[in-house]
Each structure stands twice: as structure tokens, then as C-alpha cells.
Amino acid sequence: MNTPALVKDILIDVLQLSSDETFDEDTPLLGAIPEFDSMAVVSVITAIEDTFGIEVDDDEISADVFETFGSLCTFVESKV
């Protein structure tokens, strides 16, 4: 399973970004992408849960998880 590729696809889909958008480990997310607001966070979490077959508890969601693309991928991998 290629977690970064799947997470990238989710972000592009949910945030309606260009499909040629590039993400690396240090790409900032929350606060750096205008489309990434609180409603988008909920949609991204839901898509991650559906895609990876995991459950994310409310108390696991923090700004740190969504700080960078790398931190989000690390979080997802820790749940799989």
C-alpha cells in the first residue's frame, strides 16, 4: 500500500486541487492551503477512514497531524 500516494489523491480530491499538485514530506498543509479549512479536515478524515479502513477518534485529531504532508502520512501509517 502506497500511503503517500493515496493520501495525496485524497487531498487533491477533497480540496479540489490540481491533479499535478506536488506534495513532499515538508509540504505545509493547514494554514498554507486556503481550501484546507475545518470542514475540509473533517472530509479528509472521513476519506482516510474509508480508504484505509481505519477509525480516527476525535481526540487523535490535532493541528500537529495536519501540519505537513509528512505528518499526515505518518499519522495514517500509524493507524493502518
From TrEMBL:
Lineage top rank: taxon: Bacteria
Domain Carrier: 1-80
Gene3D superfamilies found in the cross-reference section: ACP-like
SUPFAM superfamilies, alphabetized: ACP-like
Protein name: Phosphopantetheine-binding protein
